[in-house]
Amino acid sequence: MRLLVVGAGLSGLVAARHVQSAGHEVVLLEARDRVGGRVLTVRDGLADGQYADVGAEIIYHGQLNIAALCEELGLELTTELSLGTQTPDLIFNGQRLSPQASAEIAGELREAIRQVRPASYETVAQWLRRARVSQPAEMLLVAIAQGTPAAPLRLADAQELNLELSWGKGYRKIRGGNDRLPGELARGLDVRLDQEVRLVGWEDGGVTVEAERETHRADRVLVTVPG
To answer: Architecture of 2-79+175-223 per CATH?
Structure first.
């Protein structure tokens, strides 16, 4: 069987890899000049060895399939953004806080969490006034709250805030940049870049796919691009 896969994001790459490993011929058509889809790591303009993941960034603790893929491909995962064993630098009024000041803020956060009432319907602002934390701690808590779907809404459950303030525990990234995952998945695959698909046609005996500069025929087509 010959399969055409439209889209060389993670879904397309994994699907193509599985089908090819089963002994079938696979061609991937990707409209962009790179593989990875929403996974994008920037290195241009940065110092040697530095990079920034500007697309999909965090591998959550429940994404066991991604973790398993990384292990299979020999990609090392690092734990990031934890208030536990690793403490990120805290900046307040343009100045980096000392380790002692950061530790004091962490202590304030733990004490504030203990003051959240179970099944409380007070707002975040009301809770912060009652907790009487310092301004740096308050700014950090507000930043965390505003980054969640529940942003300025009510604390319906104390456990929800506990989960947000344990942010980072079990969250991982790929050492060297998350784009290493699609890069490794693409090895050994027939990937055609800069091939935006214009038309998919069905006919007796197979499909025809018209791309930017080529027309392909195959037995099946798998479209993995976002709807």
So the answer is: 3-Layer(bba) Sandwich (3.50)
